[in-house]
Design a protein that fits this description.
This protein is of the alpha+beta class. The protein has helices spanning 2-41, 64-77, 125-133, 150-162, 173-199, 230-254, 256-285, and strands at residues 51-60, 81-88, 91-100, 103-110, 113-121, 138-148, 202-210, 214-221. The longest helix is centred in the first third of the chain and has 40 residues, at 2-41.
Length: 286
């Protein structure tokens, strides 16, 4: 009976290894077929290839805020979208001077800057670049770049189609774990494909705006001199005096051996001086 149970267990293990090997072989065949079909289906014409277009421009403008409004209108007219924009004044304090007895002037240097991230449909990319070049501004830098992702996109599409989510409901724990992993992989691959495909549909443009530096003068009222009450000053003086006296005592404690030597020296000196002074007196009396 024991031998039969052992034979049955070994048979189950062998069948499990055989089934896993068949699944791995089938998966590798599917991937090889997908890669070969993807390589064959890749378009050879340059006009039909999938690319991600990016651009960057740096402009010197007279008014940062007004130019941002103009760019926003241009983007919206071309069915684009402003992803992010910001305006910074970069105010730097320079100095403060007295204007009169009760007022003063604060002088700041203002260096306005702006930044925008926009996306425009690829069919409107050339028109938008032309609109940027036609602005009433000085161009410091212009960079337009294209990244060919045709093969990457085709590979991600094949992988997403190959690992489709399971439609049958698993009945065992092992099948459930395998189904969850397969569904997770399929979702991730479809998300990667959709993300890359989405980026190929737009021109991604970074716009830097630099305004002219100017000086800002702000007139402010000067606060009249205020004096603290007498009892406040007296209390602060008492506190300061007590603190100074404590420091003096601590300093004396640090040099107490020297003080003791000085006292002993003075006592010895006085006694010697007293004897020297007392001897002439006794002599005169005798």
């Amino acid at each position: 009976m024991t031998n039969k149970i052992i034979l049955l267990l070994w048979s189950a293990v062998i069948l499990l290894f055989i089934s896993c090997g068949e699944q791995d072989r089938t998966l590798s065949e599917k991937r090889s077929k997908a890669s070969s079909s993807g390589a064959k289906s890749a378009p050879a014409n340059d006009t039909s290839r999938m690319v991600i277009k990016t651009a960057e421009i740096k402009l010197q403008v007279d008014d940062v805020s007004e130019n941002i409004k103009t760019i926003q209108s241009t983007v919206h007219s071309m069915n684009g979208h402003v992803i992010h924009y910001e305006v910074n004044s970069n105010r730097q304090y320079q100095q403060e001077i007295a204007w009169s007895l009760d007022s003063g002037i604060i002088i700041n240097n203002i260096n306005p800057q702006g930044f925008m991230k926009v996306k425009v449909p690829t069919e409107q990319s050339d028109s938008f670049i032309h609109a940027m070049l036609s602005m009433n501004a000085s161009i410091d830098k212009l960079l337009v770049d294209e990244e060919d992702v045709t093969e990457d996109l085709s590979e991600k599409a094949d992988l997403a189609d190959m690992d489709s989510p399971l439609e049958t409901k698993p009945t065992h724990l092992k099948e459930t774990v395998y189904a969850d992993h397969k569904n997770e992989v399929a979702i991730m691959r479809k998300a990667d494909y959709n993300r890359l495909d989405y980026r190929t549909k737009y021109l991604w443009f970074d716009i830097y705006l630099q305004g002219h530096t100017f000086v800002e003068k702000t007139k402010t009222a000067t606060m009249h001199d205020l004096h603290e009450p007498f009892y406040v000053n007296a209390f602060k003086a008492i506190e300061a005096g007590g603190y100074a006296f404590s420091i003096f005592l601590v300093a004396l404690l640090h040099v107490w051996p020297f003080i003791l030597l000085i006292i002993l020296f003075m006592i010895a000196y006085k006694r010697k001086w007293f004897r020297v002074f007392q001897k002439p007196i006794l002599t005169s009396r005798g």
